[in-house]
Amino acid sequence: MTHFDHQGLRADIVAGASAPVHNATVPALVARALGQGGAQLTAHGALSVETGAFTGRSPKDKFIVRDGLTENAVWWDNAGGMAPDRFDLLLADVKEHLGHQELFVEDLLAGASARHQYAVTVLTPSAWHALFIRNLLIRPEDGLPIAADARDVTIVHAPLFQADPDRHGTRTETVIALDMSRNIVVIAGTLYAGEIKKAVFSLFNFHAPRAGVLPMHCSANLGPEGEAALFFGLSGTGKTTLSNDSARPLIGDDEHGWDDAGVFNLEGGCYAKTVRLSAEAEPEIYAATQRFGTVLENVVLDKQGVPIFDDISRTENTRAAYPLAALPKVAPGTVGGTPKTVVFLTADAFGVLPPLARLTPEQAVYHFLSGYTAKVAGTERGITEPQATFSACFGAPFMPLHPTVYGAMLAERLRRSGAQAWLLNTGWTGGGYGVGRRIDIASTRRLLTAALDGGLDDVAMRTDPLFGFEVPEAVPGVDPALLDPRQTWSDAEAYERAAARLVGLFRKNFEKFGAGADAGAGPHLAEAAE
C-alpha cells in the first residue's frame, strides 16, 4: 500500500480553520456545544442533541473508492463505488468549506490490541460530534500507548456541507465516502453521529482479514477464566442487555476483533439504544445516561430537562454515547481470551424458533451468514404482521468484503478454538406477534447462563425437525414446554403454516450465496421455499 501523508492532510485542513481546538477536555466540548446551539443539558448533566432529518444511518449514500486495492475485493452488491478523482474533488471541496470555521481535532485510537491499532484523527466543526467520537473511541487518557505501526486514519466531518451529485458522483447531497487505500473518510450532509463510528468499523472490516483478524459486529464479555463470550444480534434482540452482566465484565458492546490471542474491543465507549430504557431493566445503561459528558441523541426531554425514554415521537433510534468508564464492571484493557461461547441472538416474531438451540460449526456459519431477526411491522385494527430481516454477519452495511470471507474466518476460528455456538431466541412463543407473548427475560437469562457455564453439556437434546439443530429438553428453572415451540401454540395448523413460511424465508435469503452454499446446515423443509 502506498504511504499517504496524513499529517500533511490534517495540517492543511487545520491551517484554514479560524480557531482550531485540539483534543479539548469534556467540559470544554460541552461548553462549546452549548455555545454553538442545538444542544442542551439534561436535568442530570448529559448533553442532549438532535440530528435533524437524519435519525439513523444513510446506507444508500455510502461509497467506497473504486481503485486497484478495492476493485476485486469489495462486495460491490452491498456498496456504492466512487471514482478516485470524484473523491479527490469531494475532499477538496469539503476542505474549502471547512476553511475559516471553528474546527475541533480529536486524536484517538481504535483497537485495544497493540497488534491491530488505528490512529484515528477526526476533524469536525461541531463540538458535540467531537465529544461523541471522543466518548466512543479510545482516548489518550485511557493509557493505551500508540503502537509504532498503528494505521493512520483521517475522518473529515462536515455535517452541513451539501454534496453535488453531478460534481461528486453521489446519490444525494449526503455522502459517506471511504478511501480504503489511503484510509481517508469524508462524511457530509448528515448530523447523525453514528456515521463516524461506523466508518471506523467499515475500514477495520476491510483491512482486518488481511491481518488474520476476524472483525465482528457483536458485544463481548469476560468469563471467570478470562475467556470471552460473544453476542451477535441485530437491533432489538437484546445484545446490549444480555452482554451487560454484573457477574461478567464487559469487553465491549458493538465492535470487536478475534485473532490468535483472543478478542479485543475496537472502541472505548458504548452507543446504546435508549428506547424504553428503564433503571429497573438496565440499571448500568440508565445510570450512564445521567452522567456529565454523555451525549443523548434525539431523546425527548420534559420541561424540567428529564429524558422521556418512552417517547419515540422523534425516532425509535434514540441513543446514548458514553465512555466505557461510565460502566461499573469493564474487562481490564477491554480484551479477553479465546472465546468458549458464541451466541447468535434473534427475536423471532413468527413464534417458530425455540428459545435456545445448540449449533454445529456448520450451522453456526449458516446462521452467521443469515443474520436473522424479525421486526414487528406495526398494528392496524388489531392485525399484525412480522417482517423478517436478514443482515449478513449481523452487520451487512459495514462489511465491505463478501460475507463468505467472514464466514470462512468464523468457521476456522470455531474449529481452532472449540467454541460452542448457540442460537438464543428472545422473540415470541405461543404464536407470532399479536397472538403469542414475548419470551420472558428471566427465562432467557437462565437459558443463557446455562449455555455460558457449561450447564447444558450433558443434558438430553432433541433434534429440531425444521432446522436440524439440537434443543435441550430441560433446563433448570425454565418451563419445559417453552423449549418446544409447537407445544406453546394452541393452533397446531397455524404453527405449521408459520414454520413453513419462516423456513422458506431463510432458504430464499440464502440463495444469494449460491446453490448448495448451506452445505446441509440450513432448514430442511425444502417444500416451504416453493
TrEMBL record:
One of its GO terms (cellular component) is cytosol. It catalyses: oxaloacetate + ATP = phosphoenolpyruvate + ADP + CO2. One of its GO terms (molecular function) is phosphoenolpyruvate carboxykinase (ATP) activity. The keyword Metal-binding applies. Keywords: ATP-binding, Cytoplasm, Decarboxylase, Gluconeogenesis, Lyase, Manganese, Metal-binding, Nucleotide-binding. One of its GO terms (biological process) is gluconeogenesis. It comes from the Bacteria. Its main location: cytoplasm. It is an enzyme of class 4 (lyase). Its EC number is 4.1.1.49. Mn(2+) binds at residues 198, 217, 254. NCBIfam families: pckA, PRK09344.1-2, PRK09344.1-3. Involved in the gluconeogenesis. Catalyzes the conversion of oxaloacetate (OAA) to phosphoenolpyruvate (PEP) through direct phosphoryl transfer between the nucleoside triphosphate and OAA. This is Phosphoenolpyruvate carboxykinase (ATP). It comes from Devosia oryzisoli.
